[in-house]
């Protein structure tokens, strides 16, 4: 692994030196949160936590790093501090794969301000990337309904890591597998792939190319049928090869065709008929070609016959919304709650050391609302709970006692610098994410104009926010 | 470094095993090219070649990799071959930082088909990413005219590599520097950065925050002035601190303010007046906040007073066009030219082992056109040259002898498996890229509806293409 300790913005280091030089470096609380769901989605999937932990565990300023920083004008005392840097703070976070909503603290870092500041850029980099791709994958999986989606985007991702961690995030968010071999190996997820047009083109005939492929991979034989002419040549040749396998008594685990161009709805329906007529009702039809949630929805509307969607560029770059936009903001310093004000109401932060609670309906375990509270507040399910809208405060909802369940969303990741969290496997995160999506009513999952989940503030947090806004001369 | 040898699509390995099992694995030629300039730009910047070479030099299937592949069903003979894999082919490419156009081979790989195939995914991944960001940076630098652009996007990039190599590509394409410390260290490019809002918020007053920062960094003192109120508080406090530096006899190398929100055109003009009136005519005004080429063009139209643009999310994700779309297509196999046909004319490939020539006007060294030829063709500047449009073949241009210069764009990178290229430093690539842009007339550089550069085919290549199209039953 490249040592990514210096993979940060210069201003984190200049500020850190500034804090180091101050007489006192007090404890700060930073919230990592985002402001808008990508692509107008109703929720996001939080991803990247394991890599955040890996980053923190591997922080190590090498002598070469320190030499470079000295050349940039950093002073010796500060560089000596970095040489022995160890994170000493607390971190809590929502579990990876959680369904999350705007303005909620996804990660909370409580540490000496110098240390908390030095984590900012990497935490944002990792979480912004993986949450973006996991959320896009969730959208695409929703469009595909119960059909498989495979991640095929490595060649178009933004460099090696974007393909590697992007495949991980896509699988967490809803893809069944990936074409990415290294991601498959390192994250224990399913890999798939067959052959390209170039394979067919190196043979004298398409039939010979298919035969050779089938001889090599009789048990997993998906043939790409659009090199020359899908319906005139590709599908008939594939059928011939499937018949030959049958004659040899071979019963493949997986076989079928892949369409990679043209009118996928039409071609899939025609190919389905041809395969069925030849007795290959269980042959799979896979399709790829600039797919995303919109095109899959359109294919579905046309009653396509595609069983598996291979999704590349538009997933791995989240092309319709290529940035997640999470930020990392100071919410408390030296025990005093802090607020960042802005002309843009959406950009005003929620002050103080906070908790994130999720309120489920008791009956069917669906989410009613989320609520941010101050750390010291406690709530009992045995009491009535009043929820109110932080923008339109006259809109209130009362939940009868025992009619709801409260869940504290954050888990302890670091305690006084010690990592105290059991890192789950990607498979577990994927399953958890699936169960998380099931806590949403359909109205929150639709792809266009979904219901907006209420993210409430407790009365105490609301009052604190108003007080700080007034102190800063902002009219409520 | 993580071993990225397996960072590929599974089908590259299934095809490779297929080729391994065939009696003969013949020599193939693959072209890496793209079909459209991103964002409607008039040209692209080719970037990532050094990382392509690094990848090839580091190909190494570990025992752990081979074990994993064995579990996936690959056979022992093939895995033994991979264990000792060494690339044995030839590679030529245009130099990094070159101005390039659609359909031109940027990299040409000539190798046993198995080996050429195994390079595909990584070459595309690397070149697609860096060329995308370099091209976007060139657009933004064009909008900024002679003003500095700094790359600030690490926190929003698609994972660590996207920030690291993205900063590299942005500097090649036109940025003066980056906030990215590790990219600065490893690629020898300028880094910059000062402080965030959180710095100001940890002090009792903004003035105290600015004073402390200035005490720490008296020589490079850019103060962020929008934490509370830019014109009422931020700029006056910055001026007070600059006066205090002056009183102490300190004459900073660089000082000024940064605007990060609000109406940047208005605020920069007001701030400029206030700074000038206080006698700080050389104080720099930097600005950031969702900038891209469109917003910079708009600011410029309003006669803003910004000296330095910090560009983040929209550059590092190339948000308006987040994929480059390069492909890697077979153009020759076993000495026979190959063509990939398609209903979509844009997707029909150019067959055969080719050269890429660039034709400059002798007088002012501007590009007249590019021309793809067959490898064996030669041209002399002493003769008249006829250019004709490959789509509208009746459109021809004759260049008088001695009126033009021909440049062969490809350089030899690998020769029979040996790397024979001197890798340039990023600084040199950046300078070369700047000189490349100067070979374009302004009409090709404008951001909207630029002139389309002619990429011609030689008569021989054109005729070969027609012949193969007819052979495949496609009407010309």
From TrEMBL, chains A, B:
EC identifiers of the protein: 6.3.4.21
CC annotations in GO: cytosol
Glycosyltransferase as UniProt keyword: yes
Function as written in the Swiss-Prot or TrEMBL entry: Catalyzes the first step in the biosynthesis of NAD from nicotinic acid, the ATP-dependent synthesis of beta-nicotinate D-ribonucleotide from nicotinate and 5-phospho-D-ribose 1-phosphate.
BP terms from Gene Ontology: NAD+ biosynthetic process via the salvage pathway
Protein name (record): Nicotinate phosphoribosyltransferase
Sequence ranges assigned to domain Nicotinate/nicotinamide phosphoribosyltransferase in this UniProt record: 149-349
Involved pathway(s): Cofactor biosynthesis; NAD(+) biosynthesis; nicotinate D-ribonucleotide from nicotinate: step 1/1
Catalytic activity: 5-phospho-alpha-D-ribose 1-diphosphate + nicotinate + ATP + H2O = nicotinate beta-D-ribonucleotide + ADP + phosphate + diphosphate
Modification after translation, per record: Transiently phosphorylated on a His residue during the reaction cycle. Phosphorylation strongly increases the affinity for substrates and increases the rate of nicotinate D-ribonucleotide production. Dephosphorylation regenerates the low-affinity form of the enzyme, leading to product release.
Organism, scientific name: Halarsenatibacter silvermanii
GO molecular function, one term: nicotinate phosphoribosyltransferase activity
Pfam families registered for this protein in UniProt: NAPRTase, NAPRTase_C, NAPRTase_N
Keywords assigned: Glycosyltransferase, Ligase, Phosphoprotein, Pyridine nucleotide biosynthesis, Transferase
Domain Nicotinate phosphoribosyltransferase N-terminal residue range list: 6-128
Ranges of residues in domain Nicotinate phosphoribosyltransferase C-terminal: 354-465
CDD domains: NAPRTase_A (cd01570)
Enzyme class: ligase
